[in-house]
Amino acid sequence: MARPTNRPSLSHHRARHDTVRHSSRRVGGEFRGVAWLVRHPLFALVPGALVAVAVLLGALPTAIGVGAVVLVVVVWGRLHPPSFDRWAAPALRATWRRWTTYRGRRWSSLLADCGLAQTNHHTGHITAPRVLRVRSATPTLDTLRVRLTRGQDLTLWTGRTEPLADALRAHRVAVARHRPGVLTVVVEREMPFRFPIPAPAIPLSAESVDLGALPIGEDEYGHPLNLGVPGRHIAVAGASGSGKGSLIWSPLRAMGPTIREGLVRVHVIDLKGGAETRRGLPLFHRHATTAAEAIALLTDVRDEMKARQRLMAEKGLRRLDVSPATPLDVVIIDEMAMLTAYGERADVREALRLLAEILTQGRACLTSVLGYVQEPTKDVVDVRDLFTTRICLGVTAASHVDMILGDGARERGALADEIPGGDDHAGIGYVIDQRSRLPIRFRACLVTDAEIDELVARCAPAAPPELRAIDGEAA
């Protein structure tokens, strides 16, 4: 017969253990206060410093000193807004928003409502991701570093960006991984581009042109947006009226003197009859307006590329430098779908073969392709994955965003399908930052017909090559 025992049962032992483990009380407020001061020492140091100064110098001199500092800041902001907006305003704005929006119960409750915080059912305490840093580069843009709570990841946050944007009364929220356990969260409060961006100035000389950083617009942080052409192939997607023309003419203006000096040769394929590009005809080395001309142009570019490969092999070179003997060949294809999808089957097949050859081998041989398309679907642009730099202007379908910018780009905040149409928003789009993988909103420069005419007048080659149709007839 089993002997009776006074030991508690296993279930009773677990119940007692759970009762101890899940207390309804929180850590004492005094200890929470000490921990808070350790994380924010300025809240103790600044008042302490003011008290020390008041003890040493007196209350009146201290008050006068504080008032003088405030007065200097106000006068600075009124007297010289550019320097104030660059050096002082971002710090003041970030401090204000950190303590009024991104801290405390308001922030915790907001995240809880969006499904991004955890609530302890025993104490009612909300454990919310903590904001480590706030940067406010412009009045419309905040960049946060957020430490995740245990069990959270990037996928959870990317799935909640739209509710979070609505809760913050923001236009857009973008999220990317900064380091393990920390996210970068971009809060765009309003559409940042209220006015068109002026066309880039034409440099005075070829020596002042940096082909690796051609200014083509401005990003949402107020910084110049630069485009590198050598060693890259660039794909631009955008619906009709989205401003693709700005991304044709802005790079040409920025590199203008190099065209004049023969350091860059521009080959243009425009199968819409040449209407969009004919204004710049004197700038172009070749200009094709039919499928037959386009295939002949691509064949010649491919043959030149092969000749350069042989030259590099003979001289043991890994890359070529831009020079009159080996100029940068830039192939511009306006509306690629006319060439790669909607033409005769034999022409489409040959064009795709030539394009694939150029896109896979041309980067080291100073051959770059700039392709423009309305619908970046695979059946329209079969070679889209071979473009190394991709830009998305306003598009008509959410799926187009990921097709051009890569999987997950829209979830991370590239809402190109929500860009309104019309001239007021032409040229607005997104690129992906290669380091952070964050979508960056930008606006391309607006280039008018008069500015295209100025480019032609100043930068057409002094002795331009005979512009000819590719089949040998005069253009």
UniProtKB/TrEMBL annotation:
Residues that span the membrane, as ranges? 49-76
Do you know which Pfam families this protein is assigned to? FtsK_SpoIIIE (PF01580)
Report the residue ranges that make up the FtsK domain in this protein.
Answer: 222-402
Residue sites binding ATP per the record: G238, A239, S240, G241, S242, G243, K244, G245
Q: Which InterPro entries match?
A: FtsK/SpoIIIE/SftA, FtsK_dom, P-loop_NTPase
The UniProt GO MF terms for this protein read: ATP binding; DNA binding
- Keywords for this entry? ATP-binding, Membrane, Nucleotide-binding, Transmembrane, Transmembrane helix
Q: Where is this region: Disordered?
A: 1-24
Name of the protein in its database record? DNA segregation ATPase FtsK/SpoIIIE, S-DNA-T family
